[in-house]
Amino acid sequence: MSAILILSGAAGGLLIGMTGVGGGSLMTPLLVLGFGIAPATAIGTDLIYAAVTKAGAVVCHHRQRHVEWRTAGWLLVGSLPGSLLTLWVLRSLPAGSAMDSWLRHGLALALALTALALWLRKSRPVQPDALARSVLWSPALGFLIGILVTLSSVGGGALGTALLLVLYPEFSFSTVVGTELAHAVPLTLIAGLGHLQLGHVDGSLLFSLLLGSLPGLWAGTRLHRLLPEKVARTFLSLLLLGLAVSLGRG
Fold first, then answer.
1. pTM of the model
2. Spatial distance between the Cα atoms of 202 and 41, rounded to a whole number of angstroms
3. Of 44, 74, 80, 200, which is most buried with the most CB atoms under 10 A?
4. Burial of 125 by CB count in 10 Å (0-12 exposed, 13-18 middle, 19+ buried)?
């Protein structure tokens, strides 16, 4: 089991480095569907795993000048309050199967929204006021991502990357990946620590995932420039939609 978890962590690190996606959107469904881990524990553990793994990816992307720090900051203006509000709501809910069912369906919804956002991505000429208009929307987008990340562990990479591709057509795919990773690190850390307080983090599971993530991350940050955007969007959207359907039926 540990060897499989280590390999899963490596696959997640590879995808995070290449696309900014792979933490919550792929790892959490894998833990729930493939290993039978309770949704609350899978979400909490994966949030800490994503925070640590993505911190390493941000360093690599920053060195390659693929991070728009101002945009990441505006996203955090909305996402951190959204995360804290969701944690407050989760603390008021009774633990048990009812919460697990709620989190499971929240995860399925987040995956479906992510797949839809990826399909909506269209290349278009950059308008002179595009960046200014996008900055106005960034805190609202961040608030939505903060709720979904804390509720399902999805959004910090998958939904955030997809929506940034739509919101910032002037950004290259590499810049979108690097910027969303920079935004996701503090967000997933705050959300993960909140789930840790709720008892939703498995230490041994977390260690196994992190053990495999570092080599996968190293490879992914070097391969991401070779992945065509259209191929990445098509693959991720179909995969996420399939995971959403599987979780929704569970």
1. 0.76
2. 7
3. 44
4. exposed
Note the pLDDT tens digit of each residue in 46-88. 889 888 888 877 887 788 888 989 889 999 999 999 999 989 9
Task: From 205, 114, 203, select the one nearest 153 (Cα to Cα).
Answer: 114
Give, in order, the Cα–Cα distances in Å from 8 to each of 24, 35, 233. 13, 11, 21
Q: How many angstroms separate the CA atoms of 247 and 250, rounded?
A: 5
| Alpha-carbon gap, residue 141 to 159, rounded angstroms | 10
| Cα→Cα distances 218→64, 82, 87, 96, Å | 13, 31, 32, 38
User: pLDDT by residue (tens digit) across 133-147?
Assistant: 567 788 988 898 888
40 neighbors 97 (Cβ within 8 angstroms): no
User: Any idea where the domains of the chain sit in the sequence?
Assistant: 2-249
